[in-house]
Write the structure tokens for this entry.
Amino acid sequence: MDKQSVHGMWSSRTAFILAAAGSAVGLGNIWRFPYLASDNGGGAFVLVYLACIALIGLPILFAEVLIGRHGRQSPINTLLSLARETGHSRAWSVIGMMGMLSAILILSFYSVVAGWTLHYGWLYLAQLFGGAGIEDGPATFGGLLGDPKTLLFWHSVFMVLTIGVVALGVEKGLERAVKLLMPALFLMLILLVIYGVRTGHFGAAVEFLFTPDFSKIDENVVLAALGQAFFSLSLGLAGMMAYGAYLPRDVSIPQAGVSIALMDTGVALLAGLAIFPIVFAFNLDPAGGGPGLIFTVLPMAFSDMWGGALYGLAFFLLLMFAAWTSSISLLEPPTAYLVERTPLTRRSASILAGVLVWAIGLLSLLGFNVWSEVRIGGRDLQGAIEFVASDVMLPLGGLLVSLYAGWVLDAKLTRKELPQLSDGLYTAWRWSVRVVAPLLVLFVLSQKFAG
Ligand code: PHE
């Protein structure tokens, strides 16, 4: 008989796809992807990124979701119960443990950046009521980073929003919100792409994003692209495992997985096509935009557009919503774990986990101003946390998931979770999690760190 999750279940296939796509589509697509592409040579980065999604991301996405669905609990307990069921070592639950740590670290800076979008939304709202608006993109952004009180305020607001939804249980508010908000975000991006086409610098943007200069591909570019593939698909920290736990048995994991990956990649590419025409139109240097890229560049377009304040407000609000549906999936695994392991209610558990994340977020936040001299490996505190969690811990987590699904789990078990695949495709999947994905991840990590 099929197990049910104590935390509730998705009401339908669409609900799962929306929630998982909501987790995948977030700041990673619209904030992180364009600035990484800009810092890593454009087309070269994009090409490696797309290859990582197809060759490594998709097979691991299937693996995470199927493990979650089989175990029906938070990732750590799912792995422990699988150990009891199949007799393998309990040590594999380290995947869940490490994943929870990555989720906490990622959410800590994610919430600070989501706070920036709230602040920008607020500035545009004020402009609609006669405020000054954003005249000088870089000056406004620099001013925000230098102002710990404002950063703290919006970081706290965003964490309260995240805790609020997780405390309520994911199905209720979220399923409905995502259905409405994701299409709106898509539409907004398309409007910006049209603006880009009209400014006349669209061709330059397409060339920058899609003409790979192979001489620019080095171990840093490849590692950044791999980390981004994991980050953007929400992989490697067992978050998709947590969402898979609430997935009804009759839903096809491969079909849902492919839809999620297509939506995620589509939004990232659209974001690139919306942002780079503006970068070129305003004669900015696409190299080295850094994390501030969209926050300095987009306001230039908005101040140039008729009704720009309204666009600005809508854009940053939608971006905040995209970040929200992702941050929920980052707080869910630690919360579910606390609910299973302690006498805490879901509400108290989400508050406890949320406060911990909020406190760690202060490191990133103060690293922009009070502790701006602190450098770890040439990065500020936020950059260092982002690098370790996204580019090192996520690929390592993905590597372990992949090996686990390919070598530890019995083929009978995984085959039963993927009945929709033809025998040929199933075999292809199994070998990609056994050999292809792990080797590629190991190769990338060793290029960067061994040499
Ligand atoms: N995928 C999300 C984004 O692109 C971030 C995220 C990473 C969410 C890992 C959950 C888990 O913004």
